[in-house]
Amino acid sequence: MNDMIIIQDGLFVLNTKDTTYAFRAREDCGCLEHLYYGRKIRIDSLDGITEQRSFSPGNTINYEEDMPSFSLEDLSLEFSTLGKGDIREPMVEARNSDGSNTLDLRFEDGRILSSKHMLKNMPSATDDSGDAKTLEITCRDECNKLALKLYYSVYYESNVIIRSAKLINEGEEPIRINRMLSMLIDFDRTNFVFTTFAGAWAREMKKYDVTVNSGKFVNSSYTGTSSNRSNPFVMLSDCNTTENSGECYGFNLIYSGNHYESVSVNSFGKTRFIQGINPQNFEFIISSLEEFESPEAVMTYSHNGFNSLSHNLHDFVNEYIVRGKYKKRVRPVLLNSWEASYFNIDSKNLYKLAKAASELGVELFVMDDGWFGNRNDDSTSLGDWDVNEKKLPGGLKPLVDKIKALGLDFGIWVEPEMVNVNSELFMAHPDWTIDIDYKPHSEGRHQRLLDLTCGDVQDYIIDKMSALFESADISYVKWDMNRIFSDVYSKALPCERQGEVLHRYVLGLYRIMKTLTEKYPDILFEGCASGGNRFDLGILSYFPQIWASDNTDALCRAEMQNNYTYGYPLSSISAHVSDIPNHQTLRRTPLETRFNVASFAVLGYECNVCDLSKEERDAIKEQIALYKEWREVFQYGKFYRGRSFENDSQVGSVLTGDGNIMEWTCVSADRSKAVGMIMQKLLQPNAKLMCYKPNGLGEDAKYRFFNNKVKHNIKDFGNLINTIVPVHIRPDSLVHNVAAHFVKLDGAYEEHVMYGDTMMYAGVKLKQSFSGTGYNENVRVLKDFGSDMFFMVKED
Questions:
Q1: Average of pLDDT values for 672-686?
Q2: Rounded CA gap, 792 and 367, in Å?
Q3: How far apart are CA 163 and CA 181, in angstroms?
Q4: 3-class DSSP state of 667
């Protein structure tokens, strides 16, 4: 690890366990020329690794008259500004005090810091063990009295490099920053596949691939949040990269506001990637001797495909983003009251729900929206965080104490960043909201955003939440945020600083979250923003898990969770088993599938368990016991994607041409055990063969492979029951229902002892699927949206 950062005659080489990143400071113009980012190599000089030039291309700008051999437009750079010949998209853009926007930032110095660089007002990747090393590069514009510091923090074992930048005004007059991104990297080739994850409420994280050979492709958010429209995690890869082979790069941003990622190809065949705060309507004034810091950007690379890339990021997030008591700690199984009660909160019904949950093995009961003020729908009382004692007589503590006596921890829902116009808070402080005085406001969900740029508002939220958290024994908080920004204006800022509102809001939010999580370290906080509208590394720096989507439909969730895992670990993804028909799609999926999908995450339930049949309650009790047994593997095992609804090459689906199979495997750190899942969209008729291929097992180890023994309800076979009984049974008749209650059919049980390499490369051939030609205990029944879970335990 002594070679993590090498400085040699203007050459800078950053090494992780498996990657190398290199650039140089040019002696002629002082710009930083990017040389290489990829698999680990040895670089001890510039010989052969720099582009060789004698004359600049025609119709381009020379940096200076006595530098005719190159143009910045045709160089691979580490950062870029306007005015000196690079006409591509810049990383930094500012208006100088004289009105000009040319910046001439030249290399001055590079040094290795004694500790990891930490941002002042935003979350940074941690380095509690002192493993990371940071390179600080200083560039200076003598004419405009500006300094730019670039930071590169190297995390050796995780194969991650963190980048950020800081602009310092060393002059006497203020300057106006119009763009301050976190990182820029140029590649000397094209034909990258740019992968983004876009969507909307209830359909987060749809994966899209675009090959960029010319022009520009942008992934960005202008909602005031990282957004469900476009997650800040993106990838660049070769066209032939798969889950287990090929080159790929991953990029993310430790930030929870508007973000911007762009991939562009110029006329000289160079690809530029940039990432940072969205420059749309962004403006920030820094006065003399003031500075502006960009958020930290996360970079990683793998030449072994997307699974390997994801492992880099999963390890990094679990080790250096998540912090506090719940870092690497297994999370409890919860029951959330929302879909059982909605706003109809009542202490007696809540206690009844909690009691039933405790009997199933649930560990944490969460009271969702509707417990405060006059909150009977979503039009009132946000901001008034006082218990409605008509609903909860005596306040919160009596209910919490009763639920704690059942052996359950207690959690509560809040939405502290919001206020309803119909609330006591708004009546008292109409100046505390983000809106424009005396102009009509465009509402979202009947609520407005509190102005977190204002210190008084931040203090109010901290004080109200502190009083709430101390009013009873609260173990968990679900922190929601149910609207995006409109009519962006802060009455706390002068007119010339309105371009700072959205960024200052995020800084205010971080101050609130940091204060409360440090003040209440034993509370497990879960982030939520209409589901996945703020699923990012900034939130995970304070809240160790995030509600991935308000959509709990198992088919939708399987694809969403699969796509979240490209950049985020399973321990950060919260997933619930809900009732059917699903409240968002009206789809009916098997209980086993709902559990199987939600298990590859932080498991919870969200249904009225009091209304379930005894058979369903027994099944859930078994599910929770099974999850607890394998919880460490589910939450912190090494996760591998196999086939997916997007890329499955086995029997195709009749739906839209996409794949029909989702295939996952999670392997313990020591490879002694693993759990896997296969889920199908639709049953394919007369397709008997199904094969499961795990990944990540020890090749030389021998494993016992098995699934859960299941029983099938005879009603699942409908009128076919009459082919095996002596008397005719009318479907759904009394006789049919009585028979179904007492008679169950044995399902197919899989059990093999196989070497790890055999399972991974040849696959496990499963028992034949039902195809209408006969049924016995050796026939697998996997209906539409059906799934199987498999277990692998290393033999002694």
A1: 94
A2: 37
A3: 10
A4: strand
Distance between CA 683 and CA 787 in Å, rounded? 11
Residues 6+ apart with CB under 8 A from 298: 125, 160, 161, 162, 250, 251, 252, 253, 254, 313, 316, 537
pLDDT tens per residue, range 564-581: 999 999 999 999 999 999
Of the candidates 22, 48, 548, the residue with the CA atom closest to the CA atom of residue 301? 22
What residues have CB less than 8 Å from 774, skipping those under 6 apart? none
What is the torsional sign of CA 641, 642, 643, 646? Answer: positive
Tell which residue, 758, 565, 756, 763, has the closest CA to residue 672. Answer: 756
Which residues, 6 or more positions from 723, have their beta carbon under 8 angstroms from its beta carbon?
none
Q: What does DSSP say about strands 661-667 and 673-680: parallel, antiparallel, or unpaired?
A: antiparallel
Average pLDDT over residues 227-232: 98
Select which of 368, 536, 550, 553 is catalytic.
550
Residue-level pLDDT at 654: 42
Name the E strands within 288-381.
Answer: 291-293, 297-302, 334-336, 364-367
- Is the pLDDT score of 275 beyond 80? yes
What does each C-alpha distance from 282 to 278, 292, 487, 639 come to in angstroms? 7, 13, 14, 38
Sign of the dihedral defined by the CA atoms of residues 398, 402, 408, 414, in that order: negative
More confidently predicted of 772 and 212: 212
What does the radius of gyration of the chain's CA atoms come to, in whole angstroms?
Answer: 28
- Would you call 409 a catalytic residue per the annotation? no
| 550 among known catalytic residues | yes
DSSP letters, 90-119, are: -SEEEE-TTS------EEEEEEE-SS----
758 near 702, Cβ under 8 Å?
no
- Of 18, 435, 480, 648, the active-site residue reads 480
Whole-model pTM over 0.85: yes
Report the alpha-carbon distance of residue 576 to residue 549 in Å, rounded: 10
| Per-residue model confidence as pLDDT tens digits over 352-366 | 999 999 999 999 999
Q: Pick from 437, 483, 428, 480: which is nearest to 457 by CA?
A: 428
